[in-house]
Amino acid sequence: MCGILGIVAQSPVNQLLYDGLLMLQHRGQDASGIVTAQGNTFHMHKGCGLVRDVFRTRNMRALNGNMGIGHVRYPTAGSASSSAEAQPFYVNSPFGIVLGHNGNLTNTGQLTEELFKADLRHVNTNSDSEVLLNVLAHELQAASRNYQLDPETIFAAVSGVHRRCRGAYAVVAMIAGYGLLAFRDPHGIRPLVFGVNENDLGDEYLIASESVSLDSLGFKLIRDVAPGEAIFIDEGGNFYNKQCAIKHSLNPCIFEYVYLARPDSVIDGISVYEARLNMGEYLAEKIARSMHHLDIDVVFPIPDSSRPSALQLANRLGVNFREGFVKNRYVGRTFIMPGQQQRRKSVRQKLNAMSVEFRGKNVLLVDDSIVRGTTSREIVQMAREAGANKIFFASAAPPIRYPNVYGIDMPTRQELIATDRSTEEICREIDADYLVFQDLDALNEAVSKISPTVKKFETSCFDGNYITGDVTLEYLRNIELQRNTNASLLRSRSTTQLDLSLVVSD
Q1: CA 63, CA 336: separation in Å to the nearest integer?
Q2: Average pLDDT for 416-427
Q3: What does the pLDDT read at residue 271?
Q4: DSSP states of 29-90 as a string?
Q5: Sheet with strand 229-234: strands edge to edge
Q6: Which helix (H) or strand (E) holds 427?
Q7: Rounded to an integer, what distance in angstroms lies between the CA atom of residue 130 and that of residue 75?
Q8: Is residue 266 predicted with pLDDT exceeding 50?
Q9: Within its chain, how far is the Cα of 439 from the centroid?
Q10: Which ranges constitute the DSSP H helices of 174-261?
Q11: Residue 492 pLDDT more than 70?
Q12: Band of the pLDDT at 414, cuts 50, 70, 90?
């Protein structure tokens, strides 16, 4: 779940890229990066941290050019933040290329071996995005004649990427001296949209993870990039596109609508806000059937992404809707923070319960989903401490029982509270008096009814069906083993740092 941007304009793009990344900050808070192109020269600045912290005035002044790409990254849990893995990535052979990627490749190991043994290319980090960049560079070299590129040659290279790469990938890239390239995996798992600003000097184009970036920068949304499609915009602003995948189908990640995307975005023709309202309606119908014996005094949302669902749910049930938690907006999203201890501590820093709203009441807390259960357990405890009589909990999404391998930080089953637990057992784990989950069929209907053109969603974290067809039990076990190894290294590193600090203190 990263955020990507690409712009071809008629004037300097550094400020546009900065402002656009601010609108995508919710998609990643670990690292930020911008690369601009001025002729055959790239200007790059990137680092760990929020957009506002990574870029200073001196950095922005050095980002010259009318074309550029930007990236915000979120960390994979269990791995330390590293400036080496901040994007965009750069390679200089056979063409100067920079690339930003949102998603996750499921055949990274195979590709890394092919790059080293067959393609004679070196990968310097553990990032699958650098692997993807090198695959693209190799395919461009293979497709070109005398190292010259044109749109058809570039599209042929993207076809080669589709043949070799598996998993989820939405990509923006620049090729020095040529232009901006964007493409989306043949399953359309991760989002990618593009728009235009009709300028007197010529049309300007923007490609982004979410439509909210286009809205804020004054660009008109044209449409989503289709699964398997590639778009190329040359330095002169000429627009080209082509379907580059032999087989392609639209299967957007349904978790974008549940939690990841901003509510004011439109993804694959579906309003995220409207989808969340529908989730509340379907959840209210289930609650009316299964919880009619409970006396609910008030409905509280868990800020912020569950608010539309909670509001619609309360309206349908005819129950008061109130704000019971005040959110500290200067604390990051706990879901994407590495480490259970950091997430648990952050909940208390992030939310504060208002006793005046809870005292002596039977409350229904509505959240978008329950992943590890850490946040839910802390929130229920906060509600009890605030004086609630009984605490009922509702999730606008079904139980998350399986790893997501397509770019969301939930890769191992042992970390998911719903793994091998019934709803009643999960309820006891989070210490609620009653718990209800959305049904998967209802969730699919809540989102798909907005746009009939979307027939199927990527829902593997709920049902274990992986749309790319290459995710095996062995693959999942390897991920879990690697994740546990990384977590052990982090704990060891933290203990060493603590020991050193104690020595210094003495």
Answers
A1: 29
A2: 95
A3: 97
A4: -SEEEEEEEETTEEEEEEEES-HHHH--HHHHHH--SSEEEEEEE-PPTTS---GGG-S-EE
A5: 89-91, 97-105, 167-175, 179-184, 229-234, 239-243
A6: helix 423-430
A7: 15
A8: yes
A9: 23
A10: 211-217, 255
A11: no
A12: confident
Q: How far is the C-alpha of 255 from the C-alpha of 276, rounded, in Å?
A: 11
Residue recorded with tokens 């504060």: 352
pLDDT in tens, 449-459: 999 889 899 99
**Token pair for 443:** 């969730």
3-state helix, strand, coil in the chain (%, to 5): 40, 25, 40
What is the set of active-site residues? Answer: 2
DSSP classification of residue 323 = -
> Which pLDDT band, with edges at 50, 70 and 90, does 501 fall under?
very low
pLDDT, position 76? 54
Q: Are 267 and 193 a contacting pair, CB within 8 Å?
A: yes
Q: Is the pLDDT of residue 370 over 70?
A: yes
Question: Which residue in 223, 121, 104 sits closest to 169, CA to CA?
Answer: 104
CB 394 within 8 A of CB 342: no
218-236 residues labelled b (16+ CB within 10 A) or e (exposed): ebeeeebbbbbbbbbbbbe
Scanning the structure block, which residue is given the tokens 């994407």?
336
Q: Is the pLDDT of residue 201 over 60?
A: yes
Alpha-carbon distances of 409 from 104, 267, 336, 391, rounded to whole Å:
10, 20, 7, 28
Band (pLDDT 50/70/90 cuts) for residue 362 is very high
Backbone phi, then psi, for 395, in 5-degree steps?
A: -110, 125
Question: Which tens digits make up the pLDDT trace of 142-177?
Answer: 999 888 999 999 999 999 999 999 999 999 999 999
> In a 10 Å sphere around its CB, with 0-12 CB exposed, 13-18 middle and 19+ buried, how is residue 354 labelled?
middle
Helices then strands, each counted (H, E), the chain: 17, 22
Pairing of strands 362-367, 390-395: parallel
Residues 444 and 254: beta-carbon distance below 8 Å = yes
Distance between CA atoms of 233 and 240, rounded to whole angstroms? 6
Name the residue with higher pLDDT: 483 or 153.
Answer: 153
Q: What percent of the chain is predicted at pLDDT more than 90?
A: 77
Reply yes or no: is the peptide bond before residue 304 cis, omega within 30 of 0.
yes
Structure-token pair, residue 232: 């190329």
Is-contact 407 168, C-beta < 8 A? yes
Contacts of 283 (CB under 8 A, 6+ apart): 309, 313, 366, 394, 396, 436, 438, 442
